Amino acid sequence: MNINETSLNQIAEIAIEATLEAGDYISSRFGGDLTISSKSGKTGQDLVTDVDKKSQKIIEEIICKRFPNHTILGEEDSDDKKTIAEDWVWAIDPIDGTNNYVNTSQHHAVSVAAMHKGYPMVGVIWVPWANDSGNGLLMHAVKGSGTWINGKRIEIEIDDIKPVRGRLSGLPWLEMGNFKLSKALMSSLGEVRIFGSTAYELFMVANGSMQFSLTGFANTWDFAAGILLVEESGGKVLWTNNTNKFEKFTGWAQPYSNSYDTYKNLREWKGAVLVGSKKLVNYLSKNIKINISS
Hints:
Layout: H1 5-29, E1 36-38, E2 47-49, H2 50-66, E3 71-74, E4 88-96, H3 98-102, E5 109-116, E6 119-127, E7 137-142, E8 147-149, E9 152-154, E10 168-170, E11 179-181, H4 183-186, E12 191-193, H5 198-206, E13 212-219, H6 220-232, E14 236-239, E15 247-248, H7 260-268, E16 270-276, H8 278-287, E17 288-290
Parallel strand pairs: 3-4, 10-12, 10-13
Antiparallel strand pairs: 1-2, 4-5, 5-6, 6-7, 7-8, 8-9, 11-17, 13-16, 14-15, 14-16
């Protein structure tokens, strides 16, 4: 499929519309009565609410009305959903950080990405930050056209070779058994924060609010939009892709085919991602060893 600027902009318009509507909806329900359950059946874990499900429905309906032949890959889809991955797949996380949302924490996000043959081409993330334009703040990116907030292009200006004290950093403490940090890095990590939302952290990195984030292990829909936001803001993205080394992000389900197996691969994939300024990611990747059990 030949992708031109016009078609990408049309996809971006729909992605922005869908994300904003979902953001408005979850804002309207924030702090109110929720119907809460656990996907895994474990008390207090893997939470999902009626708001997650409705938010995804809002996003899906807007996308499918305009692009009925595109495939939807949503966090709240049934695990036994069987469909063929078309060239265009939309990765949707209707609330990334549901546990935070349930506990009235503002550290959550709506994440929507349009991927072409496994690579994000349009990415949109909404976070509930106060601003003059209304409920929440929206950041979007189109491949090759930069990352934007409210008509302003966003570029990562951090140029440090290693993490700096006083600046925020992200590490996945619950998964740190899979990573070994060098002594040099341990002595200069910056101010480590755990936000409990992958999309929220990638938004923070693209915005220059965090100097780096090592986040995961998480799913395709957690990462897809944020990866593009970081790349288009001038940052660098490395991923583990189920290996014991950091590699350049090259897209999911490669080599790509229009099949159920591709959809299944996209749905079942889990990994970790390292993002930040180019110099900083280069330094970090040399000072973090990975040990993922097979």
